[in-house]
Specification:
The chain has 15 helices and 13 strands. It is α/β, with parallel strands linked by helices. It folds into two domains: 196 residues, Glycogen Phosphorylase B (Rossmann fold, 3-Layer(aba) Sandwich); 173 residues, Glycogen Phosphorylase B (Rossmann fold, 3-Layer(aba) Sandwich). The strands form two sheets. Strands 3-2-1-4-5-6-7 form a seven-stranded parallel sheet. Helix 7 packs antiparallel against helix 14, helix 8 crosses helix 13 and helix 11 packs across helix 14. The longest helix is centred in the C-terminal third of the chain and has 20 residues. The protein is globular, with a radius of gyration of 22 Å. It starts with a strand and ends with a helix.
């Protein structure tokens, strides 16, 4: 019998962020597999009982708040539960004096290539941010505490190896689509036909932060070249950043939502001509997967991770090239080009399941367990 603990303390009580969604999806995937794995005993560790509302019906226990000083004793807390292997969706879990196999996760390396910190942070924090990302040593120390390292994409795995961030085995345990959110081809066709008949301005959707590496400026310039389109910017934004983008292209039709709940966002996606994303680097591409799940075409920057996620279901533009983005959006006016993209996107989303990702995770768990038992 292998005792596995999933560190679910990063599950958000409110709306998911990327890490919350990742560990929740994997937990549900593992729960789906359990009937075929009688050799597995799985528990989740939470730091707030309300997190259980988003998790499958598994045995659970309380652990320290992961952003408190008590994180230092997490290893001792886990030792008392005698797990064979612990999986954490972060690389920062406390593991002092651990007596169990440990799988840590590094999602991306964005801030090594794009070290500019968020502008709203205090000056001292921004300085520390830059110093941390000028060296790989802190990350190496964190990851080498593990028996194995997981990451969410082959692109991130290659970057981890290239930068020699760990001497531990690196495994891809990918992000996935939420199965109940993936439309059928028939539903996608009805939505696509409804969009093609609309008389109002065509909606283009951007979901993501407004950090410099996201290059939202390219999307704003694109929108200025598309007078019959609105660019809907979904996420929360500061007044100053909003003004910067508005001043960049005064004639662009920009709609700032400053945050939407999941249902409103999905409804907006299903009305959209396309989801657009000009990022210069990502660890995954969750907005792309959400769009493909909703039957919405994707226009994005031609970076490796976006090609890994969307494959032949997206139109690509060179990084920073607003004209190319505008040209790609215009292509979607041709039904013979647009509809096949939708079909391929739905197929990719349908094939990307949390159960298959969970099988990858359990393969890593089994490997760690075997290696720790080996003489």
């Amino acid at each position: 019998m292998t005792r596995l603990v999933i560190d679910a303390r990063y599950v958000k009580v409110g709306r998911h962020d990327g890490i919350s969604r990742y560990v929740t999806g994997l937990s549900h995937g593992v729960a789906q597999i359990l009937p075929t794995r009688p050799d597995l005993d799985v528990q989740v560790m939470v730091s707030d009982p309300r997190q259980l509302d988003k998790l499958p019906d598994l045995a659970w226990f309380m652990g320290p708040d992961p952003v408190s000083a008590k994180e230092l004793v997490t290893g001792q807390v886990l030792n008392r539960h005698r797990p064979d292997v612990v999986f954490s969706p972060m690389q920062t879990m406390g593991a002092i004096r651990r007596r169990f196999g440990l799988i840590l996760t590094l999602h991306d390396l964005i801030y090594y290539d794009h070290p500019t910190p968020p502008g709203h942070l205090p000056a001292a924090v921004r300085a520390g941010w830059r110093l941390f990302h000028e060296s790989v040593l802190p990350q190496r120390v964190a990851l080498n505490r593990a028996d194995a390292v997981a990451t969410v994409s082959h692109t991130s795995a290659e970057l981890i190896r290239r930068r020699r961030l760990t001497k531990r085995p690196v495994h891809v345990v990918p992000n996935a689509a939420d199965a109940h959110q993936v439309v059928s081809v028939e539903q996608a066709h009805r939505l696509w036909e409804a969009r093609s008949r609309q008389d109002a301005a065509h909606k283009l959707i951007y979901m993501g932060s407004f950090m410099p590496y996201k290059d939202v400026e390219t999307l704003v310039r694109m929108a200025a070249a598309l007078p019959h389109h609105e660019l809907h910017l979904v996420s929360g934004i500061s007044d100053s950043r909003r003004q910067e983008l508005t001043d960049l292209a005064p004639h662009a039709r920009l709609v700032f939502h400053n945050g939407l709940d999941d249902d409103a966002y999905r409804n907006l996606l299903q009305q959209a001509t396309a989801l657009v994303h000009a990022s210069r680097g990502e660890g995954y591409g969750l907005p792309l997967m959400e769009a493909m799940s909703a039957g919405t075409p994707v226009v994005c920057s031609a970076i490796p991770i976006f090609r890994e996620v969307a494959g032949n279901a997206a139109l690509y533009a060179p990084v920073g090239d607003s004209r190319a983005f505008a040209d790609a959006v215009r292509v979607l006016g041709d039904p013979e080009r647009a509809w096949p993209l939708v079909q391929r996107g739905v197929a990719i989303a349908a094939a990307s399941t949390w159960e298959s990702s969970a099988r990858e995770l359990l393969s890593v768990v089994d490997d760690v367990r075997r290696r720790r038992l080996a003489p």
